[in-house]
Amino acid sequence: MKNLGLIDIGGTSIKFAEWKDNELKKLKPVPTPSTLNEFYEVLTDRVDQMKKDAQIIGVGISSPGAVNKKTGVIEGASAIPYIHNFEIQQALEEKFGLPVSIENDANCAALAELDSGAGKDVDSLVFLIIGTGVGGSVIVNHKIWHGAHLFGGEFGFMLSDDKHILSNMGTSVNVAKRYNASSTPVSNYSGKEVFDLAKNGDKRAQKEVQTMYYSLAKGIYNLQYSFDPELVVLGGAVSNNPDLIPAVDEEIEKIRDIVEIASIKPKVVACHYTDEANLRGALVDFGQTYPEK
Q1: Which of 15, 26, 153, 209 could form a disulfide with 8 if both were Cys (CB 3.0 to 4.6 A apart)?
Q2: Positions of E strands within 162-280
Q3: What proportions of the chain, in percent to the nearest 5, are helix, strand and coil?
Q4: Torsion region of 253: left, alpha or beta (phi above 0 gives left; psi -120 to 50 gives alpha)
């Protein structure tokens, strides 16, 4: 891959990097601007500098929202409303004077794992990002499956039971919410603190943590038997918890014991990349968007 500029648009900050001589060089991030004009000014200034420093031939961008690769429009909604629902890819290409690729941030993270991370040896994977909610990506034959309505990978909308979706049941944030709400008086523990309480024998905390593990296991089991990926990769801060993968595997085994016909056990691993994932994935997406570059 030739030298590229890379941008990761986030709700609070925008990260920049150069891909130069086959190495990723991270640059100083900036706070996310509050207006579109400021946004253009910041990005154009940084890209112009990367043109001088690294002779970049294009720009790969990781973005929130539902990116329509056919139209160059970021559909949906995010914490940055001014980037949505117009032909932003074309606008940026005109301002940069360079080809631009844009892909959803979760899809970028998945592409990074596929290219050189936890999924580097497979052709297909499901990537779950566990944060405030649950999102992610589906990759089939090295390509993102965007879906008919750009909802591919929105795993958090799956039902965990008759009333609750996976985003409500499968995150440490909601483990804390449920635990705190059932406390008398109402408490204010973080997810990590509730996990610590569970390790120290708190029965209510153990119940909520087990609910999270079971909900994730159920979602992963259903995804395995829907898409049949080679690998399931878990991302987000909770993926650093050494108990996560063994606990989810244990819950998957319980499900397989119930569904005796289920011969395939999902292979679940933690992600390799953390803060670099979106930038590295934007690099991969640029290569797929412009294979001739």
Answers
A1: 15
A2: 231-235, 268-270
A3: 45, 20, 35
A4: alpha
Residues 6+ apart with CB under 8 A from 13: 29, 30, 31, 32
Q: At what angle do helices 203-227 and 172-181 cross, to 10 degrees?
A: 140
Q: Which of 14, 109, 107 is nearest to 69 (CA)?
A: 107
pTM: 0.94
Tokens standing for residue 32: 């996310």
What does the domain layout of the chain look like in residue ranges? 4-103+275-289, 118-270
pLDDT digits (tens, 9 = 90+) for 9-52: 999 999 999 999 999 999 999 999 999 999 999 999 999 999 99
Residues 273, 159, 133, CA angle at the centre, nearest 5°? 35
pLDDT tens per residue, range 161-197? 999 999 999 999 999 999 999 999 999 999 999 999 9
Superfamily, domain 118-270: ATPase, nucleotide binding domain (3.30.420.40)
Half-sphere exposure of 199 (CA within 13 A, CB side): 10
Q: How far apart are CA 56 and CA 75, in angstroms?
A: 28
* Tokens, residue 288: 């797929």
